[in-house]
Amino acid sequence: MKTFGGPALFLDRSDINTDEIIPAKYLTENSKSALKPYILEDLKLEGFDPAADVKNAGVVVTRSNFGCGSSREHAVWVFEVNDINVVIGESFARIFRQNMFNCGMLAIELKKEDIDTLFSLGKDVMISIDLEKETITAKGSREFTCGFSLNSFDRDLVMAGGWLAYADKKY
Amino acid sequence: MGKTITEKIFEAHQRDVPSDNNVVLDIDVVMCHEITTPIAINDLHERGMDRVFDPKKIKVVIDHVTPSKDSKTATQAKILRDWARRQHIKDFFDVGANGVCHALFPEKGFIRPGYTVIMGDSHTCTHGAFGAFAAGIGTTDLEVGILKGVCSFRLPETMKITITGELCKGVSAKDVILKVIKELTVNGATDKVMEFVGPVVDKMSMESRMTLCNMAIEAGATCGVCLPDRVTAEYLWPFIKDEYDSLEAAVADFRKWHSDTDAGYVVEKTFDVSALVPQVTYGFKPDEVKDVTEMAGTRIDQVYMGSCTNGRIEDLRAGAAILKGRTIAPTVRAILSPATPKVYNQAMEEGLIKIFMDAGFCVTNPTCGACLGMSNGVLAAGEVCASTTNRNFNGRMGKGGMVHLMSPVSAAAAAVKGEIVDPREFI
């Protein structure tokens, strides 16, 4: 079973779309690893430098409706190949969220106040996730812990290592 | 309490209930194109799972970049082509026979009321126009769909969107859906189905209903849906005439897929479109919409008419009506991509292609082309496009480019003027 957590990358905007996460011109790649350098290349966000900012990140913290737009699972894989397997936000677009769980990754929804608190912890924040207790602990300028809840089916997918493994066994 | 059409479709297709909130559905049609499917094929192959649940229920097209533009896209096409052959998938559409998936597949009669449809393409919601549950999915969902014929969904909540009044001249389904998205915002319908009803929808052609449902995803919806009626039956008649004694019988049968009068909706909204004027987007989100009059005078460099939103014959007729006897502005380049070979042929027979070419349009083969900046028609940084497509995300049609979404009538008028203009001046 995967472990989830790491240094946080803060993307302080709502409605970050799949074209911003991975532009369509890279969808001609037939391997996940080839996507790695192009992560968030077209993200419209002041002061954001994808090459430098993504480097050590293990978790993305963002606002609402993350991953809206295209069905491209490349938008999930590009995080995966950059060693980011958790995105925490107020809400997600349906297809992006499903793609995350289908890949055995975590799309965690928190209420706005908790997201605000995470953003207030400063720049260098380390996030750890206890999947069993459903808690997130963030260590930055101070420590903050909050709970989250996963849909039980989403949790089963993560436990199984993704939808293909789950479905192959069950159907 | 009664049931919505979506609840009825879910009930009829339920394979499993893995949790209180989720169901696994049997899928009637799995659609594939060359951008999101080859990785699924390769992955299944590597896992020793190179098989399909039912070759008759899988429909395949090469449409996003076609003919292939380079070695990488040629490889994607080849993977799809070889797989379709290997798996005995008969409904495979390659160069010469191919067109934009969401226009081509309905035209081939692949969709029925009550069907469940998935595809690795977010605009799969288009097919809800036929009273189907049709949803865009990622590659892993596609793999499981191909292999097992199932897909998981959260239990649906439905929004009832009632469109009343009467559309003015020069105002079309595209303007209606842009207005609806403006009101709902880009995540106003997330995890919901948008059910479009009311007198305006009843009067709409299948083409217009497809335009409505096509952009449901731009409000975050899982699917857009229209209730199947006589218009649906007439469109499908060539494909269903052996199944029904008469058109009336088909219409009557389709009623089993109508939402009950006491069905439960999570939200009900009514839009009176009598005073609606043509709509245009101004920003990088599909809910950033203004009346065209507020955007008039905005300079444009390119016009693109086509895509799964507005590349059908009805759209070409609407554009040609503006362009007839006129030419595009010298500062503009204009591109028309008829969505399918049938649309292209029909447009030739009706003289529409000549009107577009005489006006100065470049006419391409049927393809998704410029819409997502993967193929032809890419914008340079700082360039602006008046487009009949469905997305205006930053960089969508090319890095640094700007896209204004609008109807075919508005796009044609913009081509003539060289700037965004109220198309009603040209009618």
Question: What do you see in this structure?
Answer:
- The complex is a heterodimer of chains A (171) and B (427).
- Chain A is 29% helix and 20% strand.
- Chain A has 171 residues and is of the alpha/beta class.
- Chain A has a 7-stranded mixed beta sheet.
- In chain A, helix 4 (94-102) links the parallel strand 3 and strand 4.
- Chain A is globular, with a radius of gyration of 15 Å.
- Chain A starts with a strand and ends with a helix.
- The model of chain A has no long low-confidence stretch (mean pLDDT 96).
- Helices cover 33% and strands 20% of the residues of chain B.
- At the A-B interface, helix 1, helix 4, helix 6 and helix 7 of A face strand 1, helix 2, helix 3, helix 5 and strand 8 of B.
Can you give me a brief rundown of this structure?
The complex is a heterodimer of chains A (171) and B (427). Chain A has 171 residues and is an alpha/beta fold. Helices cover 29% and strands 20% of the residues of chain A.
Task: Tag the structure with descriptive keywords.
heterodimer; A: 171 residues; 7 helices; 20% strand; B: 427 residues; alpha/beta; 5-stranded parallel sheet
